[in-house]
Amino acid sequence: MSLMTDKQTLSDLNIFGKQGADGIYAIFNNTYTRGGAELLEEMFRNPLSDKDAINARSGVIRAFAATELPFPYQVAWFDAAEQYLDNTDERSRLNDQQDNLGRKLNQLIAGDNAYKGIERGVESLIRILQTTVSFAAAIRERLQQVPHNRELTMADALLQMEELQLMLQESLKHKLPFARVAEYDKILRFRQREAIKQLLQQLYLADVYLSVAKIAVANNFAFPVALDKTLQQVTLEDFYHPALKSPVVNSISISLSNNVVFLTGANMAGKSTFMKALGIAMFLGQMGFPVPASKMEFSVRDGIFTTINLPDNLTMGASHFYAEVLRIKQIARELSRDKYLFVIFDELFRGTNVKDAFEATVAVTSAIARRKNCMFVVSTHIIEAGDVLKEKCSNINFVYLPTLMEGNRPVYTHKLTPGITADRHGMLIIQNEGILDILNRKKQ
Question: What's the DSSP call for residue 221?
């Protein structure tokens, strides 16, 4: 079963990129084959929600990262093989009667493109099959200590098929005679087509895992460990946003007794970046992919939903505040299904006045705090709400991102600290930029 999420969350976390910028998918997209890239995208669109499946995938990638294993294929083989297998028209099937003088003369004069395509496809698949014998053995050796590793070892069984044995011994130093191409074509494209397609999918999966393992090694990413959902636990050490060149790392712990994180901080302190980094780590963890951190253990979620960069819905004539209300209503419906969710609310009710934002923040945060089967991260610029929530709720972890002052210049540490901030530097920034001086300057 796949993790529940939606378009808003994928956009907030920039999973696939937007406005010309590369997303999280692009960081990991270093596959050799087109089929591998498509499979990788499918994984990003359908993260896992099963603990064993997540740990199995993470274990395979970890094993590949431990010792480098090359991908021993030529990409052109897969392109030719896929194009060849896509042609299932029975009228294109080769037979012995076609091996006559007329066909040979036609190939000599004008070139028999249809036959050449079949010949190229057959030869490419034979090369793939022969290469897979040693490749499958290398995979088996690396995964023998990895539990639940059957996902990649199915290639062994496919290679044992009786009809493929002659091809595994075939020499491709010279062009294959027509009769042999016709016989192999009958097997590959018609009798065993589904098995061959299944084998290619196994190789695309190996391509994805090898590529992701290389990314993990190059960036020193951590391999996540999935825990039972009922434990309500997240341990993330030294995590950061993978798009930053010089990130500040943070650590956080979420537990059953502190399943709500209440985040405050001045404008520009880094609240949104922190929440995106946390959301990305949870998303990648649910995929079983390595995460930008030094350690990650987490209770599996049924769904992840975020509200960070919420746009106005101009087509509905809705204000930003009403868009926020509709988004919270949507997530409330998901919460009412008693699923184990991870939810991020960034700057609750920024689209309304301070009084309403204060009352709404307290009301909504108090309500979600009663959902003990879920985890929440809530940020706000209404710091007074924190003092009220301290009295109302015992399961909230109050943290903030501090601002230090060097004279009149604020310095943002981006380092998470326990407590509630008292920083208010909005007017100071306005004064430092000289906005009031510009507005008050007399026309020369």
Answer: P
Q: pTM value?
A: 0.90
User: For residues 34 and 18, what is the distance between their CA atoms, to the nearest angstrom?
Assistant: 22
Strand order in the sheet with 250-254: 225-227, 295-299, 234-239, 250-254
- CA triplet 429, 435, 437: central angle to 5 degrees? 120
Backbone angles phi, psi at 156, to 5 degrees: -60, -45
Kindly tell me if the per-residue pLDDT of 424 is higher than 70.
no
Phi and psi dihedrals of 109, rounded to 5? -85, -55
> How far, in Å, CA of 93 to CA of 383, rounded?
73
Region class of 232: left (phi > 0), else alpha (psi between -120 and 50), else beta: left
Q: 10 Å Cβ neighbour count for 123?
A: 20
CATH for 225-440 is: 3.40.50.300
Helix (H, G, I), strand (E, B) or coil at 128: helix
User: How confident is the prediction for the chain on average, in pLDDT?
Assistant: 89
Half-sphere exposure for 267 (CA within 13 Å, toward CB): 8
HEC string of 53-122 equals HHHHHHHHHHHHHHCCCCCCCCHHHHHHHHHHHCCCCHHHCCCHHHCCHHHHHHHHHCCCHHHHHHHHHH
Q: Where exactly are the structural domains of the chain?
A: 31-219, 225-440
Residue with tokens 């290469």: 131
Look at residue 381 in the predicted model and tell me its pLDDT: 85
| Residue 268 CB neighbours (<10 A) | 14
The amino acid that residue 209 corresponds to is Y
Tell me what pLDDT residue 109 has.
40
Q: Work out the end-to-end distance of the chain between its first and last CA atoms, rounded to an integer number of angstroms.
A: 69
d(CA 428, CA 411): 12
Report the phi/psi class of residue 208: left, alpha or beta, with left for phi > 0 and alpha for psi in -120 to 50. Answer: alpha
Q: Are 284 and 54 in contact (CB under 8 A)?
A: no
The CATH code that applies to domain 31-219 is 1.10.1420
Q: For residue 166, what is the enclosing H or E element?
A: helix 165-168
- Contact by Cβ (8 Å): 183, 189: no
Using an 8 Å Cβ cutoff, are 364 and 229 in contact?
no
What sign has the CA pseudo-torsion 435, 436, 439, 444?
negative
Q: Quote the CA–CA distance of 127 and 419 in Å, as a whole number.
A: 62
